Amino acid sequence: MPLIVVTTVSALLQKLIPKQEICNYAELIMAGEDIERDYLIEKLISGGYVKSAIVEEPGDFCIRGGILDIFSPLYPNPLRIELFGDTVDSLRFFSAATQRTIKIIQEAVILPAIEVILKKEAMVEIISRIRQQASALDMPVTKVRNIIDIIKKEGIFSGIEGLISLIYPKLDTFFDYIPDNANFVLVEPKDLENIAVESQEQVAINYQTACKGKRLCVEPDSLYLRWLEVKNILLHKKPLALKMLPVLNESCDKGMTFLQYNFSVINNASINEQIKCHRGDEHYLPLADWINDKKHSGYATVIVCSNRARADKLKSILPPYGIEAKFVDSFHHVKLSTDSVYICYGNLSTGFVLPDLSLAVITEDEIFGKQHRKVRPKKQIQAGQLLFEDLKKGEIVVHIEHGIGRFEGLVKLKIDGATNDFLLIYYRDDDKLYLPVERMNMAQKYVGVDEVQPVLDKMGGKSWERVKKRVKKSVEKIAGELLKLYSERKIKKGYAYKEINSYLQDFESGFSYEETSDQLRAIEDVLNDMKQPIPMDRLVCGDVGYGKTEIALRASFMAVNNGKQVAVLVPTTVLAEQHFLTFSERFKDYPFNAACLNRFRSIREQRDIINNLKTGKIDIVIGTHRLLQRDIDFKDLGLFVIDEEQRFGVKQKEKLKKIRTTVDVLALTATPIPRTLQMSLFGIRDISIISTPPEHRHSIITYISEFDDVIIAEAIRKELKRGGQIFFVHNDIHNIWFIAKRLKELVPEVRMSVGHGRLSEGELEREMFKFMKKEIDMLVCTTIIESGLDIPSANSILINRADRFGLAQIYQLRGRVGRADEQAYAYLFIPEESALTKDAKKRLKVLMEHSDLGAGFQIAMSDLKIRGGGTVLGASQSGHIAAVGYDMFLKLMENSMSELKGETVI
Q: Residue 59 is part of which domain span?
């Protein structure tokens, strides 16, 4: 099978690590052979691998006793090496998501994780070259010393690839890596040339900026080929050139003329819109007309489906229109220039028509709308459950029976001829407990109150039982109070909604994505709650962009179809407008009226909306805290949706408490506040967690840096190059215009605007809508964008003074990007590390640790841990939490509540 490499012209220009260095580094590992574990670990670090608690992405490695996990860029899945002494006992590929074995193998090759390999023996020479270059740039001595110290201590550091010519005096190119007889295909050669020239100009600008800023950098010619060199090499390879517009007798600079073959391609852009406009029995009439038109023209028609279920659905849709389709496994079985219709398995982004071949191809997405396929969810982890990957040597744990101990690593013990893994836990007087890994549920990581250091318990002593009894007594009092709240809610009479299955299915078809398993479960939870005769009080916790709004839409549809009104409360005016657009679009084909109540509406408009709520002319109202004011009254309110409840103040929450006793309440959040989280964990409020990301969603790549003009300019231009938009968050109105001016000087070509809460209604609305319509590239703003703003084209966010934000707040801000299929980036700018507070360091550390998709719930748990349990349950409980740890405190609380309810304690 020939190897196909897809690359960009910018990558083609870049010089690379010498091929021989890669060959020298490559390590062949075979089952049954001996390896030096420490040597391999040292080699991984020199090749840019990063030690982590669990391998999740290429470049990670992890050590757990005799198990070494490595995610090499060479393979699509990570590799697990199991050692018995120094012998490789087994080799296998495993899933990073589920940690389950995919395939057992006999050998594997380890390649470097990045483009630089730092060898100890070359370090003196590398440092000498760095000093020479720094001297030529007239860099301050302190800066040079800092760089050299980092290289000596850490080796690889972020951005080292930009200094590769100081590490290897002679670099190779892409053409040195491929065979001489390789074939080349150029897509739009003229565009490639334009991009290459722009890229060279940008590299030159970056170099000049770095020189002015006295930053360590190297001349562009030492890192990149010139386009003319690359162009000449490509022309000598006699490439195939693909162009949209044929230009007769087009020739190249060297006098070489391309042989031309012209063919026309027609797209299917309008078919999905036509299908959308038809409903009921004739929903797929436009598709049938399209296929019949192609048949009459003698075309073979191919419908491409990704799976059997979709193929079966299509096969059942077509016969009523007099169309019979045949299943084929591949295009090889399609007979061209016939009037046959085929259903073929495969994946295509769009269909096309080739008149020259009498072939018409249409995809399932063009028929049903773009669907994001379901993905296997990551293994669900319960809050407080102990994972080995969470533990570091020396950390405190709490064992249910033995109390507080210190984790000292994973050990292998041979018992009755079988070797197993055990957690080694030390107690007072150096007592040891060997806990089998399969009984890890007996222990929990200790989370206490800030600054309070726990004392280790004595194994077999009475102190742990006495402490548990004392805490349990205190806990029973709190449990009684919480149970009272729970009981009051259960005895309230609510409205039991009736089934609307046929209508709901039609409404669901308007959702342009395929629901994830968690999302479907949450929808089912909410709709089932609404059918009960007691008021719903459910919290849906799901990461940004995970489909919480769709849950609210379906609940609202259920409510209005039962003759009830719906209120949707959101924290910001801009978010209210966006939700209003979403609700209006989804409800446009149904006889229900929606309105938006916020400060963007005139006094007269607000008065009309309020009157129409009282008379029942408005079915759904979306608004800010304006909805909680005294003059708001409903004819028959049935559902109250609260988006990001933690963003509302004390007074608003008191009003929300009163609402909760009479109507169904659905709260949506990405990061529940500790109090809300605690209530949900105790069962006082029902909770649904959406942790499965939509397919094609990428976790946001996050960088932390001191405020740096070069990094900022590079980040902005990188996003502009791919046609995206940028948020720059600066949460200080007093000097936001100064920052905007500085950014404009750094990147003059960026179309920029400023948005903050003190602008007049008209000004703010105008700026936000300009950004939403892509009339501007970058919005310099305060935290007004924090909640719910959904702009798929915005995929880079730069946050100034990130250390001043709370954990949930900065997580919400980061969530403004990465809401589409594009890779998103977040840049957090902070003062020098020594100026950061202890809590700020903790928050940033947690944010970097939880950069994976769906981490909102873990962020909330971490926020709770940083604040300390005492801030949640009150200072009076701080001593008890410190004594047993927060998770054990919760466990005792749950047990007490179960006992008071008369339930069996597990």
A: 18-114
Judgement on whether residues 644 and 520 belong to the same structural domain of the protein? yes
Indicate the DSSP class of residue 454: P
> Furthest-apart CA pair in the chain: how many Å?
94
Q: Give the total number of structural domains in the chain.
A: 4
Residue 628 has pLDDT above 90, yes or no: no
User: Based on the domain organization, do 747 and 837 belong to the same domain?
Assistant: yes
Are 713 and 800 members of one domain?
A: yes
Contact assessment for residue 744 and residue 752, using Cβ atoms and an 8 Å cutoff: yes
Regarding whether 709 and 674 lie in a shared domain, the answer is no
**Whole-number mean pLDDT of the chain?**
81
Q: How many residues does the chain have?
A: 906
Q: Which of 697, 649, 692, 641 is nearest to 669 (CA)?
A: 641
Contact 98, 116 (CB under 8 A): no
pLDDT, one tens digit per residue, over 202-224 is 899 888 888 888 888 999 999 99
Segment 838-864 mean pLDDT: 62
Is residue 648 located within the same domain as residue 777?
no
Q: Give dist(CA 859, CA 632) in Å, integer.
A: 36
Helix segments in 17-103, DSSP class H:
19-25, 37-46
279 and 320 in a common domain: yes
What are the two backbone dihedrals, phi and then psi, of residue 199, each rounded to the nearest 5 degrees?
Answer: -60, -45
Position 187 in a domain: no
List Cβ neighbours of 904 (8 Å cut-off, separation of 6 or more): 898
CB-CB contact of 554 with 506 (8 Å): no
CA angle 744, 749, 754 (to 5 degrees): 45
Contact in structure between 564 and 498 (CB atoms under 8 Å): no
Least confident of 47-56, 233-242, 378-387, 873-882: 378-387
Q: Which of 708, 701, 700 lies closest to 800 in space, CA to CA?
A: 708
Neighbour count for residue 247 (Cβ, 10 Å): 10
Bridge-based pairing state of the strands 701-706 and 825-830: parallel
Judge whether residue 338 has pLDDT over 90: no
To the nearest 10°, report the CA torsion of 692, 698, 704, 708.
Answer: -150
Tokens 């000087």 found at:
745
CA distances from 324 to 229, 318, 341 (A): 56, 7, 7
pLDDT at 642 over 60: yes
In a domain, 403, yes or no: no
Nearest to 322 by CA among 271, 290, 288, 299: 288
| In a domain? residue 291 | yes
Lowest-confidence range among 117-131, 320-334, 583-597?
320-334
Q: Is residue 62 pLDDT above 70, yes or no?
A: yes
Domain presence at residue 329:
yes
